[in-house]
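If you are new to this repository, start here. Below is one unmodified record pulled from the training split, so you can see the exact layout before writing a loader.
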Amino acid sequence: MRRRSLLLAAVPAGLVTLAGCGDNSSSSSKASASPSASASVPPPKIVDGPLPAITAGTKFDEKPTVAKGSGDPSKNLAVKTVIAGSGKTVAENDFIQANYLGQIWSSAKVFDQSYDRTPLLMQLAAGSIIDGWRYGLAGRKVGSRVLMAVPPTWGYGTSGNSQAGIKGTDTLVFVVDVLNSFNSKSSSTGKEVAQSDAALPKVGTNTDGKAPSIDIPKVDPPKKLVSNYVLEGDGAAVQSAQTVLCQFKGEVWDSGKVFEQTYESGRLAQFSIEQMQSVVKGLAQGITGKKVGSRIMVVIPPDLAYGNNPPSGGVVKKGSTLVFAVDILAAM
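And here is the target side for that same chain:
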């Protein structure tokens, strides 16, 4: 089972309900994260140092070795861009994909790192990740390596983190390689794939972050699950044990009514494939095996959607076939 990052302050924000929400809903559930220990503290003053040296693994996305801190650390948040990237500028509340190493200033003991597993995928939002990251990475560019020294105030507070062996007085040192970032305007940008079957919906190929069109033909829906590429990305195939970050739009086949979407809502959807199996099984199956960076069209028959138990008060009815357009932005 994939190890949970010690950086996470609580449950990831941005989880979606996937329930019928009305004729033209663009809502997802609000952030479900409880406040982090440092959520009520004021923003830190950001200074240049002191910071320990990176002594090995000095290239971008190479596992680093970092020296022990020398003397007393700053009581402010020390941040330095060691390698300047040229990609998108990261903003607070963006989702980031990053590799990182964290160690304790006074001992150089590494308490967590992602280089030997998979990159972190997390929102830079209050209650989702420690505040040192939230403030220290905002304004940095994708492709950058950032070195930070995070005092307890913007880390785990005076309680520390016993699981990681972090005391309430420990300043933490991080090396963070920012691999990518995503926000509510992100879209898949894969290679366009022909949509030639007249008996299936045709999905728009715009890549501007706006909701793609879904043109549903006036024919009976297929009886079995359909999952086809609209834009084929070049990332790794999504595995059933992973968590995905995506944009999506869901419509009812018979009426063409939108029952939920993230496009143009100001938020993204983040959910585990295993979790989705118990909500809309066909969506979990349709995403699994598809490449990250793709837009897919998924047609879900009733037995793999809500069947005879649709959400009350919405446009999804008993026996409804559902159609999704999904941009698979990232997976962890």
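Two things worth knowing about this chain: The first strand starts at residue 46 and ends at 47. The chain has three helices and 18 strands.
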